[in-house]
Design brief:
alpha/beta, 4-stranded parallel beta sheet, 8 helices
Length: about 230
Amino acid sequence: NNIQPNIIINCAAYTDVDQCETNKDHAQLVNVSGLQNLIHASDRDTYFIQISSDYVFDGIKGDFNDEDVSKPSTVYGQHKKIVENELHSLGTEHTVIRLSKVYGLQKGDNTILDEGANLLNTDKQILAATDQYFCPTYIGDVVKAIIAIQESDLRGTINLCSNEKWSRFEIFSMMARKMKKEDNLVKAINLYEINEMRGRPLDTSMICSRINRGVNLKFKPLEDAISEVANNYI
């Protein structure tokens, strides 16, 4: 009420997928009730940009497009779907942006590339799934895309990710080569060999048709990013 924003970009989320399963009430408060509070407290003309997730998909077929029906297999994904549906049903001005795995390039940022490089730097073995696929996307590209989406006045639901599809095994194996580490430090496994991962979607890769048509963006190649993060530890 004090600020009276024209636009709200809601990035707030309880993103620990495992904890969402065990702390459902707390996750619901952050991921669902939090957005509802924002919607009902704001002016009807406020334009919402809601950050959603590829976890709204079941991960069975992969290569999900902007119009594919969401069928989440996790509590976190279910919360994201509830929020998407609520925004659509209210008819308020909004854009839903579905992200894949987002990474940074800074040493110690604990995103996926830094996490892997840090483990390899200390010669700790990484259990890396060969059968889980997603589209890793640089945070700088996400920021540029959100600005471009506003400038292009794109509304509705939009997939936003790099067009590269990777598994964790592929990512960490390349990281090990860049850091000149032994291949056996990255052990290939199937995701569901880890009990707590059972039920996670296996292929949440997305096709970004609307972004590709409406916004001129070039995403950072993941191999370049892996090289940069590896150099942080060499």
